[in-house]
Amino acid sequence: MSREALFWESLAGGSVRCTACPHVCVIAPSGVGLCKVRGVRDGRLHSLVYAHPATVVSDEIEKKPLYHFHPGTRALSLGTLGCNVLCAGCPNWQISHAGASEAELARLPELSPEAAVSMARKHKLAGVTWTYNEPSVWPEYVHDVAAAFRKAGLYTALITAGYMSREVLDYVAPLIDAFKFDLKGPDAAAWSKLSKVKDPAPSFEVAVRAAKVHGCHVEVVSNIVPGVNDGERSMKAMAAWVLENLGPSTPWHVTRFLPDFELSHLKATPIPVLERGAAIGRHVGLRFVYVGNVPGHASRHTMCSACGRTAIHRGQLGADEVWVRDGMCAACGENLGVVS
User: Fold this and answer.
1) Which residue positions in the chain have pLDDT lower than 70?
2) Do 198 and 148 belong to one domain?
3) What is the DSSP letter of 304?
4) Helices (DSSP H) in 59-138: which residue ranges?
5) How far is it, in rounded angstroms, from Cα 94 to Cα 15?
6) Does 135 lie in the same domain as 17?
7) Is 84 found in the same domain as 99?
């Protein structure tokens, strides 16, 4: 279902300028932007994938990963074709690098916002997440689905690199409860090596704005890639950015890179490197640092920073034991910043 898009302006000769993200693509008649799913039709910009998800999955919320947000619940996970970040090591490259051709769209289901809510209720899901590609390529659908889920009393979460315009954030964020920020590296050099983003400043600004202006629960993930952002200086800089901009109680997930797509020639991140990154995060002053993509690792659990007890125990998939009441440790009352 193609639908006229928001966030664009007309140019001469039937072209348009898309303003949904900092790429600010100038799109010729019948063309598409870098994301491959926002295109010009009859002189107007259209969202070519509105209500056409490429992934419709029930996931543990911990898989996103969101560890301090409704632990132990499952969410409807929606993603679509295309992306505006286009990471070299993307594990979802089959959809994120695909365009919205008629052949591709014909293979996708149509899922209205109301049908998405009905699906979540049928399968006893607690909310919805936009994941597996960058949500900012279809903000119109994100907004409409989020509004429907809010009305139904179900939670909403964006899984994102934050590469969107401030206008897009301000359009969707009032309807978003959680914001998982993909912090790819400490600087432009690392972001450029890992993605099509040359200047990550807009992403940094969006993550901070989501937390401080819109009140979203924010968690940060850094996928540690050998030879790119795995040095002690890089990991310390990322941890320091989280501390200084989002605060010491913001969860930071240091996750293991697994070779894929254009980075298939690299090796998986050694576990000691991840453990060193976690130690750096704690030394910098972050209260909750997790090692991710390592099944069974002890750093999957949430430990109370005051009494030292396990507040959330996580099994292979999601949280299986939760000792948290009203966001606080059930044993001592320490505020753990857990939203439930």
Assistant:
1) 1
2) yes
3) P
4) 93-96, 102-106, 113-122
5) 29
6) no
7) yes
Tell me: do 201 and 246 sit in the same domain: yes
Domains contained in the chain, number: 3
> Tokens representing 189?
């050099």
**φ and ψ at residue 222, rounded to 5 degrees:** -125, 115
E strand intervals along the chain: 3-4, 8-10, 16-18, 26-27, 38-41, 44-47, 55-60, 74-79, 127-130, 155-160, 178-182, 217-224, 252-256, 289-292, 302-303, 310-314, 319-322, 324-325, 328-329
User: Beta 217-224 vs 178-182: how paired, if at all?
Assistant: parallel
How far separated are the first and last CA of the chain, in Å rounded? 35
Distance between alpha carbon 155 and the CA centroid of its chain, in Å? Answer: 15
Tell whether 21 and 112 lie within a shared domain.
no
Residues listed for the chain: 340
- Supply the CATH number for residue 280's domain: 3.20.20.70
Same domain, 208 and 270: yes
Q: What is the pLDDT of residue 1?
A: 65
Task: State residue 184's pLDDT score.
Answer: 98
Do 136 and 224 lie in a common domain?
Answer: yes
**Amino acid in the structure at residue 126:** A
Paired residues of 324 in beta bridges: 329
Please name which of 317, 278, 310, 289 lies closest in space to residue 62, comparing C-alpha atoms.
317
With left for phi above 0 and alpha for psi between -120 and 50, is residue 51 left, alpha or beta?
left
How far apart, in whole angstroms, are the C-alpha atoms of residue 190 and residue 87?
11
The pLDDT value given to residue 317: 86
Say which amino acid occupies 217: H
Q: How far apart are CA 31 and CA 220, in angstroms?
A: 35
**Per the structure block, which two tokens stand in for 30?**
């019948």
> Which pLDDT score is estimated for 286?
98
CB-CB contact of 201 with 234 (8 Å): no
Q: How many CB atoms lie within 10 A of CB 123?
A: 10
* CA nearest to 280, candidates 245, 240, 222, 221: 240
CA distances from 313 to 67, 243, 327 (A): 10, 24, 15
Domain that includes residue 249, residue range: 55-297
- pLDDT, residue 2, reads 78
pLDDT in tens, 149-169: 999 999 999 999 999 999 999
